Structures are given as C-alpha cells and as structure tokens.
Amino acid sequence: MNHERLTADNAEDGRSKRSPDDSDTLVTRRRILQTAGGTLAAVALTGCDVGQAPQPEAAQGSAAEPRPRMPDLTGRLARYMAQARDMPLSPGVVLATKHRILDTLSAIVSGARLKPGEVTIEYVRGQAGVPEASVATTDIMTSAVNAAFANAMFGHADETDDFHPHTKAHPGCSVVPAALAMGERQGSTGPEFLRAVALGYDLCCRILMALGPAHVRATGRAAEGFSATFGATAAAGSLARFDETQMRYAISYGVQQTSGVWSWVRDVEHIEKAFDFSGMGARNGVAAATMIQAGFTGVTDALDGDTNFVSAQSDDPRHEEFVADLGSRFYVEETAIKTFPVGYPMQSPLAAFFQLRQEHGLTVDNVDHILLRLPDDGARIVDNRAMPDVNIQHIMAVALVDGFIDFENSHAYERMSDPAVVAARQRVELIADPELAVVEAPRSGFVEVTLSDGRQVSLFVSHAPGTPENPLDTQAVNAKVRTLVRPILGEAKTEALIERVNALEELGDIRELRPLLTL
C-alpha cells in the first residue's frame, strides 16, 4: 500500500513590538488589559504570539448544573479507540503528530544520559526479558513492557518533552515510548504508529478533562500519573489491534493502574518525577495491552458503571469530555513543544527576557534587578527548586550571565554554586500572580528589568514559541532535535532519524527506526 506523504506550508507567525513605558513599575493583569498596545508585545525568537491578555475563566462551583452520567460511555470510547487505527488523519494532524514524535524521541535520547536514564539502563539490563523491543542509546533488547518503561523514563529525565498547557499533562514522554515498544513487538507500520500516538494523546488529555485537572491536583494526586497511564494504554491497545471488547478491558486495566501523588515535587534528582510522569504510565499501558493479548479479561463499563472511575475520582465529573468531539478535535495539535530545556512555567519568561536582551543590550554588568510575574500555580512549581532546570531564579541568573540557555548550562548542578550565577540570582525576584492564572494563557510570563541607569524595560508573553497559538514549524523542530540527539547518536543517525520520522507515513515497519536510535 502506498501512503502519500503529507506536507504543510509554513506560515510566518504574526509579530508586534512595543516601546516600554519607563514609568510602569507595577503590572497586574488588569493593568495589562487596560494598556493593550502599551504593555503587551510579541516576542520574536521564533515568533512569540502575545495578542490580547486573556480573560478570567468563568467561575465554576456549587452553582454549576449537575452533569448526568452518560450511558455506555465506556463502549462509545472503546468503539472509537478500536476504529481509530484505520481512520485517516488530516494533513495538519499528521504533521503535528510527527513533530511530537520527533520531539519526544529527542527527549528520550538526551534523557538517557542523565541520572534517571543511567539508573534505568542499569535496572532494565538486569531484567533481561524476551527480546521484543529496543532501549534507546543502548544495545539492550528486552520485553515491550521493559522497553516502554526505560524509554519513558528517559523521556522525562529532564524538561525537554512536550506538555498540554490546559491540563498540564505531558503526553509525549509516555505515549510515544509505549507506542514505540508495542510497535516493535507487533511490527507495526508507520501510519499505524502515527494513529496510535494521536489516539494516545487524546486519551492522555481527555482523562484530565473529564476529572478536572485542577481538582486532581488540589486533592494531592499527580495528574500526570493519571494521564500517562491512559494515554499509553490507548496507544498500545491500538497497535495491538484490539476490538471493542478488548478496548473495554484495556480501559478497565488502565483504571486499575492509575495512580500518582504530588509528593514528586520533593524529588531532587528527577528520578521519581520521571517515573510518575512517564515511566509508570508507559509500563502500565504496555502491560495492560500485552496481558489482554494473553487472554486477560476485565470489566467492560469502568467509566460509567456502578462505582465507576470518573465518579470515584472527581466530585464534579465531566464524563462527556471523554468522547466530546472525538475524531474532530485532536489533542496532539494542542500540546506545546518546548524551545528551552527547562520546566514549562519558564518558557514564556525566558522568551520575554531574551527578547528584551536583544532589544536593549542587557548584560550581567548593566542589569540591577529582574522582576518576574508568573501565574501562581506555575510559580510554585519553579520557585527556588533543588533541580537547576526547574528553578526559575537560577535559570534566569544563568541566562543573564551566559546570554543563552541550552541543555548543558540548564542541567549543570555545579552552576548552582558558581559565584557569578549566585550573585546574579540575588537580583531575580519572583511574584506569584493569581491574576495571570487564566485558562486562555495558563503559562504566560511578565518580565521587568531595571537597568543600572535607572531605566525599566518590560515584556508580557502570553504564549511562548512552541505553544499551539505560536507553533514551531518543521525546520524549528528539526533544529531542536539536532541539538539534543547529535551529541549522543552522531550526525549521520540524527539526520537519518529526522528524515524517517518526517516521512513516517511511508514506513513499512516501525522497527526500521531501531538502528537509528540504538548503539
């Protein structure tokens, strides 16, 4: 069967600029709205779309209308999951999926050389297993379950993987490793792999849409752990070519394995965090699929029967979010690809800082103070954390001292005690601003820099490069991949990997990627 290669024209992002008002010393979201055109600007790194400052989310609470449980929700979702492997995807969805796959593979390769990757390689090598799938950057062949776990641990070993701005899910780092391992086990085609990944992204985000991502986190549970298992289960089940009944079982085994608690924020080495965000979910999803292939049966109405998953996990469930706009809304188009290898709350402020640096010649010698305003939930995640790549005060200091942020300087623990960085860090102030916590721009950032001559320059960025509102084109995604993959796999394999993934719809067997990812 011949598969037509899909391409998309790259459109130039709209951009605007502003002349900073030196008298602006206090900026709130309300003032931003009042001074549209004066306080807002677009960042031109790769085109940071700012547009208008967002409006607050409509209040939701006890006055909301009760939402009736939907009949046969599990069956409706299972039928779609079984059919999705044969459904054609639009060129836009195919392009978005290839971008996320390539971006995730680069996170897997780079993460394999960090502490979570190193301990995972040692662990999985000792597990042996039936040689069904490969472990990236190694010579290890092991079971699909072990390979999915290992590659997923690599995928979130640092902060280079994609995320969904509204739910805060990290789909790629669990869905892609699960699909890759299951695809190798099954000998799946490129188109099958693409559709499985797109489906996995859907389920990864839809579970949190149904439960309410804020509700899950407010109760101390890890939304990422929940979403990772569902996304990986969907992708693995698709590649296993499950029928509706088997998909019902897969949903049920996903339900039973869903877990995670927000205690991961105390992890200082990113190991348990990688397990929570990706390793656990990918392992769970492939385990569910392979168990069902072996004849395991399960409950057929886990989402809508008595004591169902959604009602048990949320006090304000939105069951319909599991199936709303299935086949027309694809969450793989809605995730953000990071341009900086740091935690996602830092993407917008870094974009703003580097634009200000370019326009005003900011250096460590002429900057007296850097004021940051972030949405309060994001600020809590990155406020003076022990890990360098999720510590915004440290990262902004490194950006000021070095003039750039890359994989090396953002992950170097020794830079946290560098005297020049420590001194610059004293100039960085973070304010958690609840008025910036709005659904339209959940990861915005405001930066105000006071120069040694007394001038103040500032910039608000609502959507950093790589977000759905300001997407990266194929050239930009390829460029990011080269910086992460080339130092480990070499130029030849890197370029071949980029070429093959950008033409996945022409691939006859996903195992053709194996020699490009392993040593």
Q: What name does the CATH topology of the largest domain carry? A: 2-methylcitrate dehydratase PrpD
Ranges where pLDDT stays below 50 over 5 or more residues in a row are 1-67
- The share of residues in helices is 40-55%
What's the number of extended β-strand segments?
Answer: 6
CATH class of the largest domain: Mainly Alpha
Overall 3D form: globular
* Oligomeric description of these chains: single chain
Strands in their spatial order, largest beta sheet: 4-3-5-6
Largest sheet: 4 strands, mixed
Give the H and E element order: HHHHEEHHHHHHHHHEHHHHEEEHHH
Mean of residue pLDDT values: 89
Report strand %: 5-15%
Question: What structural class should be given to the helix and strand makeup?
Answer: alpha+beta
CATH architecture designation of the largest domain? Orthogonal Bundle
Tally of individual helices: 20
First-to-last CA distance: 31 Å
Number of domains: 2
Q: Provide the gyration radius in Å.
A: 22 Å
Q: In the CATH hierarchy, what is the superfamily of the largest domain?
A: 2-methylcitrate dehydratase PrpD
Descriptive labels:
alpha+beta; 60s Ribosomal Protein L30, Chain: A; 2-methylcitrate dehydratase PrpD; four-stranded mixed beta sheet; two-stranded antiparallel ribbon
Give the helices and strands, then pairings.
Layout: H1 29-34, H2 73-84, H3 91-111, H4 115-127, E1 133-134, E2 141-142, H5 144-155, H6 172-186, H7 190-211, H8 213-218, H9 223-239, H10 244-257, H11 271-293, H12 309-313, H13 347-360, E3 367-375, H14 376-382, H15 392-402, H16 407-411, H17 419-425, E4 428-433, E5 445-451, E6 456-461, H18 474-489, H19 491-501, H20 514-517
Parallel strand pairs: 3-4
Antiparallel strand pairs: 1-2, 3-5, 5-6
